[in-house]
Design brief:
Layout: H1 6-15, H2 23-35, H3 38-54, E1 56-57, E2 64-65, H4 71-74, E3 79-86, H5 89-98, E4 103-107, H6 125-131, E5 138-141, H7 147-160, E6 166-169, H8 185-193, E7 196-197
Parallel strand pairs: 3-4, 3-5, 5-6
Antiparallel strand pairs: 1-2, 6-7
Bound molecules: zinc ion (ZN).
Length: 198
């Protein structure tokens, strides 16, 4: 049964496809959006399109950036020989917020999940392996402690070890299944400091 007109239903349908937005939130957002002045809605629509068109992966670390190289990789003060591997740009942001990590990152954009049919070729692993051909001292694996995150950590460690690069895993102080971005900075720092060699 359709209670709403086709246009509002279509908007609700689009919004409910966003992560974390259920049908009720989608309805609330849809009615809020159509109640706003057209100019304001246009700014929202424009910034969605602008972000999508102009953001791309950093040539080095694969995080999202609007320049060819992201500000972290472009910073000469960062230690390029230490690479922290994270699942998403949000995880990178969580570690950056601590202000204590001086190495660089590698963003995988996902994790290996046989259940969801996501294999090693579906995440940015080849790009990581290419970086290891350079001068790298340590790879810190900071994927989430979910099943997918652990599977990915194990896979990467097996892949890298023959190259003779030190591989460490952040400490398990990070709660199982916990999303890195929801964990406070002190826990993150402890996890980083307590990392163990794989
Ligand atoms: Zn970068």
């Amino acid at each position: 049964m359709d209670y709403f007109s086709g246009r509002i239903s279509a908007l609700i349908e689009q919004l409910s496809q966003l992560p974390g937005i259920g049908p009720k939130s989608a309805q609330r957002l849809a009615f809020y959006i159509v109640s706003q002045p057209e100019e304001k809605v246009k700014r929202l629509a424009d910034s969605l399109l602008d972000a999508r068109r102009n953001l791309h992966y950093c040539r080095e670390c694969c995080t999202l950036t609007d320049s060819e190289i992201c500000p972290i990789c472009a910073n000469p003060k960062r230690d390029k020989r230490t690479i922290m591997v994270v699942e998403t740009p949000r995880d990178l942001a969580a570690y950056e917020k601590t202000g204590k990590y001086t190495g660089v990152y590698h963003v995988l954009h996902g994790a290996i999940s046989p259940m969801l049919g996501i294999g090693p070729d579906d995440i940015r692993l080849k790009e990581l392996m290419r970086r290891l051909e350079g001068d790298v001292k340590e790879v810190i694996i900071a994927t989430n402690s979910s099943l997918e995150g652990e599977t990915t950590a194990m896979y990467i460690s097996k892949l890298i070890k023959p190259a003779g690069v030190k591989v460490t895993r952040i400490a398990s102080g990070v709660p199982v299944g916990g999303d890195l971005e929801n964990i406070d900075e002190i826990t993150l720092l402890r996890a980083l400091e307590g990392r163990t060699e794989l």
